[in-house]
Specification:
CATH topology of the largest domain: Hypothetical protein af1432
CATH architecture of the largest domain: Orthogonal Bundle
Oligomer: single chain
CATH class of the largest domain: Mainly Alpha
Bound molecules: fe (ii) ion
Length: 355
C-alpha cells in the first residue's frame, strides 16, 4: 500500500484539567483514528503545541495555571491556521464567544456530546485545510502572474526598442531627403510630446501621436525627386503632386499594423483649424488632436531654424506669430497650452537637435 502524508493520523491536542474528561476525550479521539496528546492546563498545552504543532486543539476554558483563552492566543500566535474547538460550561458562554473572536473555530457546551465535538472538529479541520489551500493557490497564482508579467514586459521592452529604432531610422532618412530640415523630425517629436502631455493626452494615444509626428512626411518617399528636391518654387501642378504626400503617407502606414495609430497625424498634418488645409479640408475639432498638435509644433520649428529660403526668428517672436494664427491656422486651445510651456525646455530640445 502506498504510504504518504495522507495516511498519517491527524494529531489532536486535548487540554482539560478534569482527569476523567481528559482521559475519555483522548480515548474517543484515538478510537476514531486521531493521534491524541493530552495536557492538564494551558501552559502545558502550549508546550505540547509548540513541540508537536497539531492541526487541531480541543481545550477547556477554565483551567488553573493558564486558561483556555491564553492557550488559544499562544497557539494562534504560533500557527494562525490551527483549528481550536473550546469546551465551555453553561455559565461561561460569554467567554466562549470571546474565544471565537480570537480565532477559535467553534465551541461545545459541557457536558460534551462526543458526536457533536467530532463534527465540530472535522468542520474546523476542513476549514483549516481550505484556508491553507486557498492561500497556497493564491500564492501560486500571484507568482505565476508575476513571472508572466515580467516575461511580457521584457518582451515588450525589446519589441518597443526595436520599433523605436526602426522609426528613428525612418525619420532621419526622411530628414536627409528633405533638404535643409536637418533633425526636424527629432525636434517636432520633442515639442509635440511636451505639448501633448501638457494638453493631458495619455498613453496609448501619446505614443500614436509621437509616431505620427515623427513620420508625418513619410509620404514624401513617393514624391519624385524633381519636385521634392527642386531648388526653385514649385508650379501649381507640382504643388498638387507635392500635396499628395499626406495621403500617400496614410496609405503607406495602413499596411504596417503597429503604425496604424499614427495614421491620423500623418494623413491630416496639413489640415488647418479654419478648414483651408489639405488633404480633406477638415475644420476645428474634426481634425485629429495629434494633427492639430503637429501643426503648431511644426510651424514653431519652421520659424526657429534656418532654412534655405528663410532665416530663423527668435522663439519669442515665433510664439507671437503662432498666437496670431490661433483660430485660423491653429487650434486656439492648444495654442494657449503651447504658449504656457516653459521656453527653456523648448530651447533645450532645439539646442540638442543642432549639436
Ligand atoms: Fe508634410
Amino acid at each position: 500500500m502506498e504510504e504518504g502524508p495522507a495516511e498519517r493520523p491527524v494529531e489532536v491536542l486535548i487540554v482539560e484539567d478534569d482527569p476523567p474528561i481528559r482521559q475519555v476525550l483522548s480515548e474517543l479521539f484515538s478510537g476514531i483514528g486521531y493521534r491524541s496528546f493530552a495536557a492538564e492546563h494551558g501552559q502545558e498545552g502550549l508546550e505540547v503545541f509548540r513541540a508537536r504543532r497539531p492541526p487541531l486543539v480541543v481545550t477547556d476554558l477554565k483551567m488553573p495555571v493558564m486558561d483556555g483563552v491564553e492557550l488559544l492566543r499562544g497557539a494562534k500566535a504560533l500557527d494562525p491556521d490551527v483549528a481550536v474547538v473550546v469546551l465551555t460550561g453553561f455559565g461561561d458562554v460569554k467567554t466562549a464567544i470571546e474565544s471565537l473572536k480570537l480565532g477559535a473555530a467553534d465551541y461545545i457546551l459541557k457536558p460534551v456530546n462526543f458526536d457533536e465535538l467530532r463534527i465540530a472538529a472535522e468542520r474546523a479541520l476542513e476549514r483549516r485545510r481550505l484556508t491553507i489551500e486557498n492561500r497556497e493557490h493564491q500564492a501560486t497564482l500571484e507568482q505565476r502572474v508575476e513571472e508572466q508579467t515580467w516575461q511580457l514586459s521584457r518582451a515588450l521592452d525589446s519589441t518597443a526598442a526595436a520599433y523605436r529604432q526602426t522609426l528613428e531610422a525612418l525619420g532621419s532618412a526622411l530628414d536627409t531627403r528633405d533638404v535643409g530640415t536637418q533633425a526636424h523630425s527629432q525636434r517636432v517629436v520633442g515639442y509635440a510630446r511636451m505639448l501633448a502631455e501638457a494638453a493631458g493626452i495619455e498613453e496609448p494615444l501619446l505614443t500614436d501621436v509621437e509616431r505620427g509626428v515623427l513620420l508625418h512626411d513619410i509620404g514624401k518617399i513617393g514624391i519624385p525627386d524633381s519636385i521634392l528636391l527642386k531648388p526653385g518654387p514649385l508650379s501649381p501642378e507640382e504643388w498638387k503632386v507635392m500635396r499628395t504626400h499626406a495621403e500617400l503617407g496614410g496609405q503607406l502606414l495602413s499596411r504596417i499594423e503597429f503604425l496604424k495609430g499614427a495614421i491620423p497625424v500623418v494623413l491630416h498634418h496639413h489640415e488647418r483649424w479654419d478648414g483651408t488645409g489639405y488633404p480633406m479640408g477638415l475644420k476645428g475639432e474634426e481634425i485629429p488632436l495629434g494633427a492639430r498638435i503637429f501643426a503648431i509644433v511644426d510651424a514653431f520649428d519652421a520659424m526657429t531654424v534656418d532654412r534655405p529660403y528663410s532665416k530663423a526668428i527668435s522663439p519669442q517672436v515665433a510664439l507671437e506669430e503662432i498666437k496670431r494664427s490661433a483660430g485660423t491656422h491653429f487650434d486656439p486651445r492648444l495654442v494657449e497650452v503651447f504658449l504656457s510651456l516653459p521656453l527653456e525646455r523648448l530651447e533645450e530640445i532645439r539646442r540638442k537637435s543642432l549639436e
